[in-house]
Amino acid sequence: MSETMTEIELEYAATDELNDDERYRIFADRRRRLTLAVLDERTTPIDLQELASQVVARGEGSEADDAGLTEAAIELHHKHLPMMDALGVLEYDPAERCVEP
């Protein structure tokens, strides 16, 4: 299922406090949109590997192989999660590799 920027924006309340530039920056990347869609369905923290698995499954419509999961986890860990954490959309603890919606 493909979710548009507007659908996710309406569902994910943490983006309400962002200015337009920050909001567009977050939603410009498909992997970040998928991450927010996964987190929107959660109320408890999620480990990086599980988040990567769910993001890849949503993006590809099926389970990813080990290489695909590793690539997604690395990209989330080094690029997407720190950026979204800095903007206050989620909380990411890189040492624990844990994300809180």
Give the helices and strands as they follow along the chain. Answer: HHHEHHEE
Query: DSSP strand (E) fraction?
Result: 5-15%
Distance between the termini: 21 Å
Q: So how many helices?
A: 5
Which structural class do the helices and strands define?
Answer: mainly alpha
Largest beta sheet, briefly?
A: 3 strands, antiparallel
Number of strands: 3
- How much helix, percentage-wise, in residues? 55-70%
* Morphology call: globular
Mean pLDDT: 87
Radius of gyration: 13 Å
Whole-number tally of structural domains: 1
Unreliable segments of 5+ consecutive residues? none
Arrangement of strands in the largest sheet: 1-3-2
Characterize the quaternary organization of these chains.
single chain
Can you tell me about this structure?
The protein has one domain. Helices cover 59% and strands 8% of the residues. The chain has helices at 5-11, 20-27, 30-40, 48-60, 66-86; strands spanning 46-47, 91-93, 98-100. Strand 2 and strand 3 form a beta hairpin. The longest helix has 21 residues, at 66-86. The chain is globular, with a radius of gyration of 13 Å. The two termini are 21 Å apart. Residues 25-100 form the DUF7344 domain. This is DUF7344 domain-containing protein. It holds the Pfam family DUF7344.
